[in-house]
Amino acid sequence: VRETVTYQPDLTASSPGHERTQFTQDAKITALCGGWQKIRTKIEEASVERFSENAKRGREGFEAVLEMSRRVFGEEKERERAKMA
């Protein structure tokens, strides 16, 4: 399995104060089982399914962390505003 994950600023969908991140995930899965094509295919299919499940969980976790960060930064911003008032 070769997996690549890339996070980069999404300049097309961002605006000041509402920056976005583009998430790209790619995997190449190859089962090496010699001439046993049926077994090889089953291994590859199972690997792809597992990868998809893990990718979904990873994306959900990352989004949860971002949401918590937004909430904490928003609360901090409000505290700073209250101090200045």
Your description of this structure?
It is a single chain. The protein is of the alpha+beta class. 56% of the residues lie in helices and 19% in strands. It has a two-stranded antiparallel ribbon with strand order 1-2. The model has no long low-confidence stretch (mean pLDDT 84).
**Unreliable runs, pLDDT <50, ≥5 residues?**
none
Radius of gyration, rounded?
21 Å
Q: What portion of residues is helical?
A: 55-70%
Class by alpha and beta content: alpha+beta
Order of helix and strand elements from N to C terminus? EEH
Continuous helix count:
1
Q: Tell me the number of strands.
A: 2
N-end to C-end Cα span: 56 Å
Mean pLDDT: 84
- This entry's quaternary arrangement is single chain
Strand order of the largest sheet: 1-2
> What's the main sheet like?
2 strands, antiparallel
Q: Could you tell me the strand content as a percent range?
A: 15-25%
Shape: elongated
Spell out the blueprint of helices and strands.
Blueprint: E1 2-9, E2 21-28, H1 37-84
Antiparallel strand pairs: 1-2
Keywords:
85 residues, 1 helix, elongated, alpha+beta, single chain
Question: What would you say about this model in short?
Answer:
By secondary structure, the chain is of the alpha+beta class. 56% of the residues lie in helices and 19% in strands.
